[in-house]
UniProtKB/TrEMBL annotation:
Stored InterPro entries: HATPase_C_sf, Hsp90_fam, Hsp90_N, Ribosomal_Su5_D2-typ_SF
UniProt-recorded Gene Ontology molecular function terms: ATP binding; ATP hydrolysis activity; ATP-dependent protein folding chaperone; unfolded protein binding
Highest taxon above the source species: Bacteria
Protein family membership: Belongs to the heat shock protein 90 family.
The keyword Chaperone is assigned to this record: yes
Protein name: ATP-binding protein
Binding-site positions, ATP: 49, 53, 92, 107-108, 129-134, 179, 325
Keywords: ATP-binding, Chaperone, Nucleotide-binding
Species of the source: Geomonas paludis
Length: 674
């Protein structure tokens, strides 16, 4: 004993002579509580464990009897509150029972005699591995009975345990080879006798076991084989699609068969779901099986993080289940390799689809717009593989990013760096498409969420090979022609009139300017400030139904605090209506009463010029709507006043005609009114 430790407790004589050796005892009741409350997530996991044992016993017997018609039968008795699992597998002898049932944690498939002698032969086909699965029966049963007879033996055995360390073993006159396990349920678990519940659990855990499973004489209740089990080659896409529709009640847009390849022995199918997946935080999910035995549903750790739009079902014998067998070890090399392999398969399929059937790929992108384009922006490895094939609407129709870049290079006609134009205003593309066509430009419509970010990322990947220019913000080079000084002076009065009148209507942060551009039938454009692009992204994020409430609050707070830059109303000097408004503004300013113009009419006309341009640029918020209603009301009132003046003129003409000498007056005023 170390000197710095002082104790008044006398040592026992045995410890004084050396360490005492003793054997730890097992509290079976405590172990069962641990299993029921901590290890297993559901009380019906005993079904999975017993089905695994049935499967392994049948596999082992088939090693010596290849033509064996193996089967698993499950029966229930409401009178006895019991569930019985019966199979015609290899069975157990006295040594097997003593080894498996008398040592907790022992597995007949991992060591010892009897069944262990066949472990090496069947190690790639057996499912059970931990030796504690059978104990799951005691989480729901008050008593468990086992009748068994091993293949080739004349005598069978009967084993009984009532949930304690004491068990009974005696010979049995069981006539057939195999094992029968009966669980006598505790009262609180009698719901497990419900046939619909039990059938659902059997299908969930053993749907792909290669042996038919019957329930109370009906069956098989399991599918036995999925499409990838029925053939050594690749199952057809139609078979995979029909399986997904039947088993998962989903209607896949694309199906991707998974077959052994390289160092991965996985089989199954991935599919791109037909369901909308708007949530950025969502993850792709896969149901996992190990040697046909169900392990977990909806695993979110097996697919790459960018594959949010993908689901599937995979059976891989290399995966290592956790001790509870309701999950897999995420850091195991087999799991990492499978995740990499599935990611490669998805990328390969998308790339092949984009090249072979671009129309179908475009429909897929449209359906899963947020995730395909969003993940391309977030994950460089996915971006490099998929981004060139992503379609975008342009002034020349739908084109992929790589085709947009090729067209920009062709349009450059020898210039140092090609220019790729885009616009972001929602609903404004029609007018910019016409402007682009008049100049021979290619303009990309990037008004949908993430499209502008995708363009910027793509331009960044091709830095020095293309320049990205937004045409609906600032003063993009080449889009407008400047005015001569005389023209500038002529339009300056109209610009001031529009700015002043709109300011009186409550329109702030407005700059009015005049440029010359084609086509001439577009009277005006509203151009946004370049600094507002990040605000557009925030507005788009608020419109995404999948955004979390916390992110929505942050985006809303940023929008409320951000100072909004002024918009620019760009008048078109080539438009006849704008040229006419220049004259009207001058007349109104000189108060040329002879023309009889109403000041309210000019207010409404100038305001409508701005509002129509604003709506054409994609503005559709409350402020724009209020302004439009205000101006339409003003126009309506002006029309009423003009009608009143027209009636007054008609009355005047009638009175003058009655007095005589007014023959030409009606004709002259009629011409004026027209």
């Amino acid at each position: 004993m170390p000197r710095n430790i002082v104790t008044n407790t006398p040592l026992s004589p045995s410890l004084a002579d050396g360490p005492e050796l003793f054997q730890m005892e097992t509290d079976l009741d405590g172990i069962l509580i641990l299993l029921g409350e901590s290890l297993y997530s559901s009380p019906d996991v005993f079904i999975r464990e017993l089905l695994q044992n049935c499967h392994d016993a049948l596999v082992l017997r088939r090693r010596s009897e290849p033509n064996l018609a193996g089967h698993i039968c499950i029966t229930t008795s409401t009178a006895e509150k019991s569930i019985t699992f019966r199979e015609n597998g290899i069975g157990m002898d006295y040594g097997d029972i003593r080894h498996v049932f008398s040592v907790i944690g022992s597995s007949g498939k991992r060591g010892g005699k009897g069944l262990a002698d066949l472990r090496t032969m069947a190690e790639t086909e057996l499912i059970g591995q931990f030796g504690i699965g059978f104990l799951s029966a005691f989480t729901v049963a008050a008593r468990v009975e086992v009748f068994t007879r091993k293949a080739g033996d004349d005598c069978g055995w009967h084993w009984t345990n009532c949930g304690s360390l004491q068990c009974a073993l005696e010979p049995s006159a069981r006539p057939e080879t195999g094992t029968e396990v009966t669980l006598f349920l505790r009262d609180e678990y009698d719901f497990l006798l419900d046939e619909e519940y039990l059938s659902s659990a059997v299908v969930r855990y053993g749907n792909f076991l290669p042996f038919p499973i019957s329930l109370n004489g009906m069956g098989p209740v399991n599918a036995v084989n999925a499409p990838w089990h029925r053939t050594k080659g690749e199952p057809s896409l139609e078979q995979c699609r029909a399986f997904i529709e039947s088993a998962y009640h989903d209607f896949p847009i694309e199906v991707i068969p998974v077959l052994p390849e390289g160092g991965t022995r996985a089989r199954g199918v991935l599919y791109i779901t037909g369901e909308r997946v708007p949530d950025y935080g969502a993850k792709g999910t896969v149901d996992l099986y190990v040697r046909r035995m169900f392990v977990t549903s909806g695993s979110r750790h097996i697919l790459p993080p960018w594959a949010k739009f993908v689901k599937g079902v995979i059976d891989c014998p290399d995966l290592k289940p956790t001790a509870s067998r309701d999950g897999i070890k995420d850091d195991d090399p087999a799991t990492v390799e499978l995740s990499r392999h599935l990611g490669d398969l998805i990328v390969r399929h998308l790339r092949t689809l984009a090249e072979a059937n671009p129309e179908r790929f475009a429909r897929l992108v449209d359906w899963h717009h947020y995730h395909l384009k969003g993940m391309a922006c977030l994950y460089p490895e996915f971006f490099r593989e998929i981004a060139p094939y992503l379609p975008l609407p342009t002034s020349r129709g739908t084109m992929t990013l790589r085709h947009c870049l090729a067209a920009a290079r062709e349009d450059a006609a020898g210039k140092a760096v090609p220019v790729l134009y885009y616009q972001k205003g929602e609903g404004a593309f029609s007018q910019f498409r016409r402007m682009a066509q008049s100049r021979g430009w290619l303009v990309v419509d990037a008004s949908l969420p993430l499209d502008a970010s995708l363009l910027k990322s793509y331009a960044g990947e091709h830095r020095g090979q293309v320049t990205l220019v937004r045409v609906d913000a600032g003063d993009p080079p080449g889009l407008f022609a400047a005015l001569e000084p005389v023209q500038e002076e002529r339009f300056r009065l109209l610009e001031g009139e529009i700015a002043g009148r709109l300011r009186r209507m409550g329109v702030e942060r407005l700059v009015v300017r005049t440029r010359s551009f084609e086509p001439a039938d577009i009277p005006a454009l509203v151009m946004h400030h370049r600094d507002d692009e990040d605000l557009d992204d925030l507005r788009h994020s608020l419109g995404n139904p999948g955004i979390s409430e916390a992110a929505r609050m942050i985006a809303g707070d940023l929008l409320s605090k951000r100072k909004i830059a002024p918009v620019t109303l760009t008048l078109n000097a080539r438009n006849p209506a704008v040229a006419r408004l220049v004259d009207l503004a001058r007349w109104q300013r000189l108060e040329d009463a002879a023309l009889g113009w109403d000041a309210g009419l000019l207010d409404a006309l100038l305001g409508s010029l701005f509002t129509t341009a604003l709506m054409a640029s994609g503005g559709s918020g409350k402020e724009e709507g209020d302004l439009l209603r205000q101006q339409l009301g003003g126009l309506f009132r002006c029309v009423l006043r003009l009608l009143e003046k027209h009636d007054e003129q008609q009355d005047l003409i009638t009175r003058l005609e009655q007095q005589g000498g007014t023959t030409g007056l009606r004709h002259g005023l009629g011409d004026y009114n027209c």
